[in-house]
Design brief:
Elements lengths: L8 H17 L5 H8 L4 H13 L3 E3 L7 E3 L3
Antiparallel strand pairs: 1-2
Helix pairs in contact: 2-3
């Protein structure tokens, strides 16, 4: 997260991907699917970015896995 509170380019790309993936597939993408599409090979890097987005209330999960991800907070 940047100091000015704005999303990073990568976080914006992840949000766009999640939004379009949910529209197309009815559920969120997996960590590996996100990484492959935004250029992150490390699943822990993807999980970190998702955690940052979740902390900001931009996404939420209904289960343990990130593919249960939804846009917006709880």
């Amino acid at each position: 997260m940047r100091r000015d509170g704005a999303l990073s380019v990568r976080q914006e790309a992840i949000l766009r991907l999640i939004r379009s993936w949910i529209t197309e597939h009815g559920e969120g993408p997996t960590i590996r699917q996100i990484g492959a599409r935004v250029g992150l090979s490390s699943t822990s890097s993807v999980a970190y970015q998702l955690g940052q987005l979740e902390e900001r209330g931009l996404i939420s999960r209904t289960g343990r896995g990130w593919n249960s991800c939804r846009m917006g907070g709880p």
